[in-house]
Every structure is written in structure tokens, then in C-alpha cells.
From TrEMBL:
Name listed for the protein in its UniProt record: Diguanylate cyclase
TM spans (from-to): 12-29, 61-85
Enzyme Commission number(s): 2.7.7.65
Domain GGDEF: 129-280
Top-level taxon: Bacteria
GO MF annotation: an example: diguanylate cyclase activity
InterPro entries the UniProt entry points to: GGDEF_dom (IPR000160), Nucleotide_cyclase (IPR029787), Rev_trsase/Diguanyl_cyclase (IPR043128)
Residues in coiled coil: 107-134
Length: 284
């Protein structure tokens, strides 16, 4: 409902601004004798509108008051001293200039509200999304949901469950050596390699995208996880000697840590991650 209201304000203000421009142009062109004077007032109206757009409506109203005061003084002088007659010309710009300001302010208000709503929707989407858009991997939110279920299954059916976490050694240094685009390609390549190294009933998660860290929930015990670790190390070594050496000009070395789930020691998915991350410190 708010989005519809903001759209109506923005669209209505835009149409009002176009209408004001059309009326002002027709009025200016309709009186050749006062063409220069009308052009000056039209430019003043546009200038106040532009200032209002980039500042606030208060600034626009103050400028309009100054304009009305100045124009009123000019009209009074023209009437009393010169002997001119007050006609439509004298009232037109007193009405049209504030109309430009109001329509511009409404347009700015509507656009800003739409931008704020768009930012809020983006933040809400990021917080609720369970899949990373670029790598198509499940994220931390999805991990918490899945891990809660897997941990309960592990206890109930006595199925061994191991969490393995992976990160890239010297990532901060690598970021300084290759560009942002290649960084994301490296994350995607490593993610694909991780997906092909696990079984279909195991799950891979991207736990941190900025300083890449992946998590793998494996239905196996700690010795079984060692097999996956060796398989990963073998594949990364092979890729470093061939594709990665040519593509990134640096070696991508994985740090791997793993911990088996025991319900007496680990009570939540976040604690599960913390326990696995501690194991990374021993992989030097």
C-alpha cells in the first residue's frame, strides 16, 4: 500500500511538473512584447525548483518568499512610478513559481520514499534469502535451519555427523593481487570444486562471502571426513598446477577444519560452526 501511494505521489508530481512547464511555455510564447521578461521569470522558477530538488522544501519556500517579495516590489514600482496596469502577467508568476517548487518537492519526496522502500526490501531479501545469488550455495541462515534438523536426526538415529569448514589461506593478500571480478570467480570455482567433492546427501554452504568460508555437513564420522579432506587437497593441488596458476597467477591453498557432532558438547548450529572454526587454527 505504501509503495502504491509513493508511486502515485511520484507520478502525480511528474505530471504536474510537465503541466506547469507546458503552461509556462505557452504563456511565455503568447506575449511577444514581454518575451524577455517572461524568460527571466521562467528561468528563476526553474532555478528555484532545481535548488529545491537538491536541498529541502524549506529552502525552496524561502526562495519563493524572496521571489514573491522581489516581484511584488517590482510590480509596485512598475505600477506607482511607471504607471503600469496590474494584469494577468503580474499574477501568473506569483502562482506558477510556487507550483514549480511544490511539484518538484513532491517528485523528490516520492522518489526518496521509493528509494528507501527499495533499500528496505533489499535488506529484508538479504536477511531472508537462504541461497547466495552468485554462487547458488546455501548461506548461514539455511545452514542453521538444516543443521538443527541434521543434529536432531544424528541423535535420534545415531548417525555420525561431521561439520567441515574451509577457508583460503592468505586471502587478504590475494585480494590485493587480483581484481574484484577474479575474486568472485575464485569463490565460484572453489564452490564448484567443493560441490563435486561431496556425496549427494551431503550439503555445502557458503558461510562467509567477504572472507570466504565454506561449510560441509557430512553424514560421516571424523575419520570419514579425512577422506573428503584428502580428496579436496588433491583436487586443489591439481587445479593449482593447471587452471588456477594460469587464471589467477596465485596459488589458492585451503585451510580445512572438521569436528564431529556430539550433542553433549555442541548445543546449537552456531556453536557447531565455532567448534569447527577452532580446528582451522591447527591447519597451518
Amino acid at each position: 500500500m505504501n509503495r502504491f501511494r509513493n508511486s502515485m505521489i511520484s507520478d502525480g508530481a511528474f505530471l504536474l511538473l510537465i503541466l506547469c512547464c507546458f503552461i509556462s511555455i505557452v504563456f511565455t510564447a503568447g506575449n511577444p512584447d514581454l518575451y524577455i521578461q517572461n524568460i527571466i521569470f521562467l528561468n528563476a522558477a526553474f532555478l528555484i525548483a532545481v535548488v529545491t530538488y537538491f536541498t529541502t522544501v524549506t529552502t525552496g519556500l524561502i526562495l519563493n518568499i524572496l521571489f514573491i517579495f522581489g516581484y511584488g516590489t517590482y510590480t509596485l514600482y512598475h505600477t506607482v512610478v511607471v504607471g503600469g496596469v496590474i494584469n494577468t502577467q503580474n499574477y501568473f508568476w506569483l502562482i506558477m513559481t510556487p507550483m514549480f517548487t511544490v511539484s518538484t518537492w513532491m517528485l523528490t519526496l516520492g522518489n526518496r520514499q521509493l528509494q528507501q522502500e527499495n533499500e528496505q526490501l533489499k535488506k529484508a531479501n538479504e536477511s531472508l534469502a537462504t541461497v547466495d545469488a552468485k554462487t547458488s550455495l546455501k548461506n548461514t541462515l539455511s545452514f542453521q535451519n538444516d543443521a538443527t534438523v541434521f543434529m536432531a536426526l544424528s541423535v535420534r538415529y545415531h548417525i555420525p555427523l561431521t561439520l567441515m569448514v574451509l577457508s583460503v589461506k592468505y586471502w587478504d593478500e590475494i585480494k590485493r593481487m587480483i581484481g574484484e571480478e577474479q575474486l568472485m570467480e575464485a569463490v565460484q570455482d572453489l564452490s564448484k570444486m567443493g560441490q563435486t567433492s561431496i556425496r549427494t546427501n551431503d550439503s555445502l554452504y557458503l558461510l562467509n562471502k567477504d572472507n570466504p568460508m565454506w561449510g560441509m555437513l557430512l553424514f560421516t564420522d571424523r575419520p570419514g571426513a579425512n577422506i573428503v579432506i584428502e580428496r579436496l587437497r588433491s583436487r586443489i593441488d591439481e587445479r593449482n598446477r593447471t587452471e588456477f596458476a594460469e587464471k589467477y597467477r596465485v596459488e589458492l591453498i585451503l585451510k580445512i577444519g572438521a569436528v564431529e557432532y556430539h550433542h553433549e558438547e555442541i548445543s546449537s548450529p552456531l556453536e557447531f560452526i565455532a567448534s569447527a572454526k577452532k580446528q582451522l587454527e591447527f591447519d597451518v
